[in-house]
Amino acid sequence: MASGLPLRHPTQGFNASQQLIKSDRGGMLTMSDDNVMMKQIVGTHAPDGREIDVKPLLHLVEDILKRATLQIDTSLTAHAELEDTTHQVNFVSMIDALSYTIDRISCEIAYKALGGTDAHATTVSLCNLLPSYSWEAKLVLTMAAFALNYGEFWLLAQIYSSNELAKSMAILKQLPNIIEQSGPLKARFDALNNLIKVMMDVTRCVVEFKDLPTSYISQEVPALSTAMTHIPTAVYWTMRSVVACATQITAITTMGHEFSISTTDVWELSTLAYKLNNILEHLRKQLAACYEYIDEKRNVETFQMLKNLFETIHIDNMKVLKALIYAKDDIQPLIDGSSKKRVHLDVLRRKNVLLLISGLDILNDELSILEQIYNESRQHGARLDSQYELVWVPIMDHSVQWSDTVNEKFKSMQSTMPWFTVYHPSVIEKPVIRFIKEVWHFRNKPILVVLNPQGKLVCPNALHMMWIWGSNAFPFTSLREESLWREETWRLELLVNGIDPVILNWIKEGKYIFLYGGDDIEWVRKFTNNARAVAKEARVPLEMVYVGKSSKREKIRRLMATITAEKLSYIWQDLTMIWFFWTRIESMLYSKIQLGKLDDHDPMMQEIKKLLSYNREGGWAVLSKGSNVVVNGHSSTVLPTLVEYDLWKDQVP
């Protein structure tokens, strides 16, 4: 050793690092020092504009540090397996270009740690080695240099007992002593591992900022500009933590047992971890704000794209359906209601598609009637079968917590549907929900949007048509709706079609039929008894059916039980039929409104409006002879007329 470095007693290095740890206690906590130091660090930064993809290197560093720390989770090995050979080729050439720099940093850290140089001065000297690199590249290169030293230390520690070469090298590095003393050193290694974890988290976070898509976010955005001003500080303190970790390892290998029983505690490492954690928290907050901003921009773009899509002519409906339901091909976004198997959107290609859009609060009544109509359309053979496909599009607010209860409700609804369903509400993206709400005016009530085989919107809500005419309204265009109304007249079939074949038979037989409703049992008793007495005396065949009320479900259920018990009249046993009766009448009004054909002088509409107003205010009755409606009156006029039968009985013939 005639020439070269002067020999130093191990305690000299140790004392120097002791000094470094002690002298630094004040420095790490004062803000003004921070500002002075940061000016110095920023002064070394002179990037030359070259771009380096540091992610493959970062994955490697991550893998080394995870395996090197004492408690290694063997499942965390995925990062090391670089995706494909081309990636590896690029990676090898990148390592070739950077290995000299990584070695230089590694040597600089090791030399300064042995010499006991002040941590700040060492960090500045590292920055001086890397002036032309971007901030994230400086950081990843420094972490790589640290991983090289730290990885070598732990590689020897892990294999020296089973490898002769490693054993000899380990003895030179005093490793057997260190491993034997691992008990007293445990707190120090724990603090090291903890700090290394935070250093990795900060590094990942800094690299993530670099990866933000510049087409959606620029430096002018407050969240990003704030982060950019803090990144040099994050890089500085992470590099300084690298220096501190390296100093600790050097002190352990040069002092071994003596260091473990020294009075020095893990104060410096935990203070650095605390500081870095604060920096990390702040950066993560800004990163989340950046992602939110990017999402918002993307959502606006998607929303606009959807609007444009519906103004364009297409050869089939695939583009439109993909934009509405699921754009990528990596999953099968639908479930086939008949087979309960997952399927691709292709099953809907060039078909008329009816989108049933609703929340999870869609009524069982609605589903059971829709199922009835859907199944009937399928029974008419191939002619109707190929006419339309139905798809349930469940709309859930993305801000609502998806709980087990919600999931169970969704699954149970989905399992009962015989048509196609979107396999999960999360598939439907935010901008699509916005489009459905703003452009198609979906609020909370279900809507049935009709798209033709080219994906063109032919009806923004065909539910009213579906309730009034069922599949007969196909292809659900406003032209078809107008022609169906032209064929309609004010007759009893209009009110009861598709609900109850019994009444349709009475109509065929030309009987007198009373359709009546209300929620006052006393009025019902008087009305039915008087009506029956009048029919008997006038010798006319009379049938009566109770159709309840659109609300007060429980009260109506009790009333129906009384009507049955007292044999007052015929009733619909199923409350769904009562719901459907009133929904059809409301749909007639909505249909006319949607067509813009609501004419106050239209006699049919006047009668429909009358019924809807009676439904709100007590009892009422509609009398027909066969198909022809004779009377549509409120309880206040119908009952007195029946009671005063003697006054008009001469007119009966």
Write the layout of secondary structure elements.
Layout: H1 10-27, H2 31-43, H3 55-68, H4 85-115, H5 119-129, H6 135-159, H7 164-172, H8 175-180, H9 182-210, H10 222-255, H11 257-260, H12 267-309, H13 318-324, E1 334-335, E2 342-343, E3 352-358, H14 364-379, H15 382-385, E4 388-394, H16 404-416, E5 420-422, H17 430-438, E6 447-451, E7 457-459, H18 463-469, H19 478-487, H20 492-496, H21 501-508, E8 512-517, H22 521-538, E9 542-546, H23 553-565, E10 570-571, H24 575-595, H25 603-616, E11 620-625, E12 628-634, H26 635-643, H27 645-648
Parallel strand pairs: 3-4, 4-5, 8-9, 9-10
Antiparallel strand pairs: 1-2, 1-5, 3-6, 6-7, 8-11, 11-12
Helix pairs in contact: 1-10, 3-6, 3-9, 4-5, 4-6, 4-10, 5-10, 6-9, 6-10, 9-10, 9-12, 10-12, 12-17, 14-24, 18-24, 22-26, 24-25
Rounded to the nearest angstrom, the distance between the terminal CA atoms is 137 Å
The count of DSSP E runs of length 2 or more, i.e. the number of strands, is 12
Low-confidence stretches: 1-29, 71-82
Helix content: 55-70%
Structural class: alpha/beta
Tally of DSSP helical segments = 27
State the strand order across the main sheet: 2-1-5-4-3-6-7
Computed CA radius of gyration, to the nearest angstrom: 40 Å
Please tell me about this protein's structure.
With 653 residues, the protein is an alpha/beta fold. The chain is 60% helix and 8% strand. The chain has 27 helices and twelve strands. The protein has helices at residues 10-27, 31-43, 55-68, 85-115, 119-129, 135-159, 164-172, 175-180, 182-210, 222-255, 257-260, 267-309, 318-324, 364-379, 382-385, 404-416, 430-438, 463-469, 478-487, 492-496, 501-508, 521-538, 553-565, 575-595, 603-616, 635-643, 645-648; strands at 334-335, 342-343, 352-358, 388-394, 420-422, 447-451, 457-459, 512-517, 542-546, 570-571, 620-625, 628-634. Strands 2-1-5-4-3-6-7 form a seven-stranded mixed sheet, with no helix packed on it. Strands 10-9-8-11-12 form a five-stranded mixed sheet, with helices on both faces. It is elongated, with a radius of gyration of 40 Å. Mean pLDDT is 82; it is low at 1-29 and 71-82.
